[in-house]
Amino acid sequence: MKLTIKRVPTVVSNYQEEGAADRPRAGCGRDCLGDCCLPDSKLPLFAFKASPKKPSSQEDAANNEFFVNLLLGLWEDRMARGLFRYDVTACETKVIPGNLGFVAQLNEGRHLKKRPTEFRVDRVLQPFDAAKFNFTKVGQEEVLFQFENGGGDDSFFVKSAPISVADRAPNVVAINVSPIEYGHVLLIPRVLDCLPQRIDQESFLLALHMAAEAASPYFRLGYNSLGAFATINHLHFQAYYLTVPFPVEKAATKRIVLAEGMKNSGVKVSKLMNYPVRGLVFEGGNSLDDLANVVSSACIWLQDNNVPYNVLISDCGKKIFLFPQCYAEKQALGEVSQELLDTQVNPAVWEISGHIVLKRRSDYEEASEASAWRLLAEVSLSEERFEEVKAYIFDAAGLVQSDEEEVREDEDATYTPVSIAPTHVAEGCLVLH
Fold first, then answer.
1. Which residue range or ranges hold the GDPGP1-like C-terminal domain (predicted)?
2. Residue 17: what pLDDT?
């Protein structure tokens, strides 16, 4: 059975418009990111350090702020040029009273009256389709810089650098013209290779390097798979800057004890506790490569087995939250209440992490921890299905759970669940081939 949702496409580029996908691209002369223009172009280049290290002095710490200050400065430049569809800095935002402090934003500008299209939710992996909107159609004025490995111990920035496509297609960072928050950008790995929305170890490591370069707890990256509210089937991560903790970052966790011999990578794994969406937390690792290897192996199993998922990259790339989810499937099957559907909130990585973008003023004014919990509880796998998926993930990542008792990460945690019963989550939530 083919599951579809009638939905409004999210606009992330000024070139994502009706009919744009059908226009001929060869020799367009529009300075786009396609083969017709990009190879002969020059763009700013940020070269990141090969092996991130912790700052050992105040000078090192100041240098670490360079990337995020550069990115935000260039983002503000694009705002001054009028490239965004609305001023996200004028959107009302508040922290909802409660144990976790969910963040609500009223963003009526994201409710765009576009022609509804059918979006398949029953396949996490779908072939790249050049006829549909993809990032090669974006104009170069929306690009902030190339993002490449400099191969050395220091990062550096070049205001204008030729595009080298001899060995590999370039990674680029571009604005999202319908931003959710200040500094909202897209990291697009190897843009000319036209990769579908599918994580691999190389792309995930690239995202961790970006988080490490930002060196700020307020700059996070997110990833949505198809079926978990990714709207464009061209490989990309999102990122933005928000100066409050995400609720998921404050949630209690319980460490999963790994068997001896499974700890060589230094990666620690925990389960979220007292949070409406069940998820795993990966952190540590002897290097970014170690963390990227473990988490990308888990993501690869999920996408290869048709389980939609979202990823939040937190704490400067040192902590990863992984959420298998089933909201879109339940929505397609008619199992989500009309009250939740009327909010028009599609719970992707930012919403699941606790930053909820609301499109109606009434929802914003009435937002509460209980309403946020009700929405996000619909996203979560059942406990039984989550444990089943966790076992498969561990096997794929080469992890073996010990028979030892799991250890509470934060014995001093004071959070207790909100005083409502989380919505019942149906068993399964796995879309079968």
1. 247-398
2. 61
User: Which of 49, 48, 24, 44 has its CA nearest to residue 34?
Assistant: 24
Which pair of tokens denotes residue 298? 């888990």
71 part of a folded domain = yes
Please state, in angstroms and rounded to a whole number, the distance separating the CA atoms of residues 404 and 249. Answer: 26
- Burial (0-12, 13-18, 19+ Cβ within 10 Å), 373: buried
pLDDT in tens, 343-396: 999 999 999 999 999 999 999 999 999 999 999 999 999 999 999 999 999 999
Write out the two tokens for 403. 């028979």
Cβ contact 2:11 at 8 Å = no
- 299-309 pLDDT, tens digit each: 999 999 999 99
Residue closest to 373 by CA, chosen among 417, 310, 412: 417
**Set 209, 234, 236, 355: catalytic member:** 236
User: CATH number for the domain including 70?
Assistant: 3.30.428.70
Q: How far apart are CA 294 and CA 192, in angstroms?
A: 27
Q: Are 138 and 121 in contact (CB under 8 A)?
A: no
* pTM for this entry: 0.88
In a domain, 132, yes or no: yes
Contact 176, 12 (CB under 8 A): yes
Relative to beta strand 309-314, strand 319-324 is: antiparallel
Buried b (16+ CB within 10 A) or exposed e, 266-302: ebbbbbbbebbbbbbbbbebeebeebbbbbbbbbbbb
Return the ∠ at Cα 220 (arms to 217 and 225), rounded to 5°. 155
Catalytic-residue membership of 236: yes
State how far the Cα of 275 lies from the Cα of 212, in Å rounded to an integer: 26
Q: If you search the block for the tokens 């500094």, which residue do you land on?
A: 183
Domain enclosing residue 130, as ranges? 38-405
Question: Quick check: 159 pLDDT over 60?
Answer: yes
How far, in Å, CA of 104 to CA of 250, rounded?
A: 16
Handedness of CA 219, 220, 221, 227 (dihedral sign): negative
The answer to whether residue 426 is domain-embedded is no
Question: How many structural domains are present in the chain?
Answer: 1
- Evaluate whether residue 33 is within a structural domain: no
Query: d(Cα 408, Cα 298) in Å, to the nearest integer?
Result: 23
